Amino acid sequence: MSEQSQKEFELPVKITEEIEQISKELRLSKEKKEKLVEEVRKSYTRGMFEPGEGIGIIAAQSISEPSTQMTMRTYHFAGTAGIRVTYGLPRLIEIFDAKKEPETPMMTIYLKREFNNASEAANLAENLVEKKVLNIVKRISLNLNENSIEVEVLDKRKIESVSKVVKEMIKNSNVKTKEDKVMVAVKTENVKELQKVKEKILSLQVGGVKGVKNAIVRKEGDDWIINTIGTNLSDALKIKEVDERKTYTNDIHETASVFGVEAARNVIIREAMKTMQEQALDIDPRYVMLVADMMTFAGDINSIGRYGVAGAKTSILSRAAFEETIKHLVRASIRNEVDNLQGIFENVMIGQVVPAGTGMFELIVKPDES
Predict the structure, then answer these.
(1) Residue 325 in 3-state DSSP?
(2) Backbone angles phi, psi at 214, to 5 degrees
(3) Which of 207, 241, 270 is the last residue of a domain?
(4) What DSSP assignment string belongs to 96-127?
(5) Is 143 helix (H, G, I), strand (E, B) or coil?
(6) How far apart are the first and last CA of the chain?
(7) Whole-angstrom Cα distance, residue 147 to residue 187?
(8) 6: Cβ contacts below 8 Å, ≥ 6 apart
(9) pTM of the full structure
(10) Exposure winner among 74, 206, 333, 345, fewest CB in 10 A?
(11) Pair 205, 69: CB distance under 8 Å
(12) Overall number of domains in the chain
């Protein structure tokens, strides 16, 4: 769009109202307000495209070409040892394939203002990590004479919590406590059954948030932030210290189940942009936004692939050009499907003008007879 066209372009009413509100709040002078309007207009018109422009193709090549330069490795999270976080091309594939369970699920937890300090953050991080009986037990043994299991814990203060969870989760058992021991009598004389009960007791959760394997505290500006390995967003948001307005997870499907598909769309954009920026790749966010829109516009999350967006295309030739060519052609012939050649790929395949740019319409000229 030319500079003259930009000046003549009228901004949408909603944006104009927001500019007015910002101007009042900041008490901008007339000159500064006009300058703000001009900058917003330039930014807005720069993001527009002409009718018929192949923005899908442009987005595809703008993301795919830089992605070929991405690494295939994983790295250790800053300042910690033993925690491997997926990044680079594997993480990008994970996002666009909309995997149900990411390889490294993580939460970024922000604290409410009154709890935003080092001691509260450290305390919360410790309490977030999932603790099982296995983590607090000193010794566990089988008493075959009494058909019972004796659990000796490291900290006597944990006796009650261990006893309570064993009573709830181990059916048909008689639970007693004695000094630093929890004794679980089971109605069976089978040693294998006792062994199974023992393993089950060791795996019972007695503290923390289920699924959170580790938690690291760091400071970002004025905020104390907790990064967790493992995610359980719904339970984490119930904790009083957690700021539910800022806290998020990198698990797209979990975000969709807790906050809805619009929030999941935002996570796709954020995680994809973050992954590419880590590799120093400069990609316009609008291309990633377009991909995220395609993945979520149906109301749920679809992958970019043969079982998602690409596999749902109405064009037979377009589906066949992507993957599993013979399968799509045979299935279409059996079902008597018809391809109306309305897309770009199918028209390229058969050598016709594509319905984009000047190929979008037919021009009929009436010659001047004079």
Answers:
(1) helix
(2) -155, 160
(3) 207
(4) HTT-SS-SS-EEEEEBPGGG-SHHHHHHHHHH
(5) strand
(6) 37
(7) 7
(8) 41, 42, 45
(9) 0.76
(10) 333
(11) no
(12) 3
* Structural tokens at position 345: 């790929």
Contacts of 325 (CB under 8 A, 6+ apart): none
Q: Taking Cα atoms as reference points, which of 292, 303, 282 lies closest to residue 66?
A: 282
CB 40 within 8 A of CB 75: no
Question: 């309007």: which residue's tokens?
Answer: 37
| Tokens 């790295």, located at residue | 75
CATH code of the domain in which 342 resides: 1.10.150.390
* Tokens read off for 232: 């359980």
Give the separation between CA 6 and CA 43, rounded to whole angstroms: 10
User: Which among 205, 199, 197, 207 has a CA at the least distance from the CA of 175?
Assistant: 197
What element of type H or E holds 254?
A: helix 252-259
Query: Is residue 333 in a domain?
Result: yes
Q: What is the pLDDT of residue 327?
A: 87
pLDDT of residue 202: 79
Contacts of 168 (CB under 8 A, 6+ apart): none
C-alpha triplet 7, 12, 17: angle, nearest 5°: 105
Check if the beta carbon of residue 122 is closer than 8 Å to that of residue 111. Answer: no
Closest listed residue to residue 161, CA positions, set 198, 200, 133: 133
* Residue 335 lies inside a defined structural domain of this protein: yes
Q: Which has more confidence, 137 or 120?
A: 120
- Amino acid (one-letter) located at 112: K
Band (pLDDT 50/70/90 cuts) for residue 164 is confident
In DSSP notation, 269-310 reads HHHHHHHHHHTT----HHHHHHHHHHHHTTSS---SSTTSTG
Contact predicate 309/294, CB 8 Å: yes
* 169 in any annotated domain: yes
Q: What is the pLDDT of residues 187-236, one digit of tens each?
A: 766 778 778 877 887 778 788 888 888 888 888 888 899 999 999 999 99
**The pLDDT of residue 81:** 46
Report yes or no on 324 lying in a domain: yes
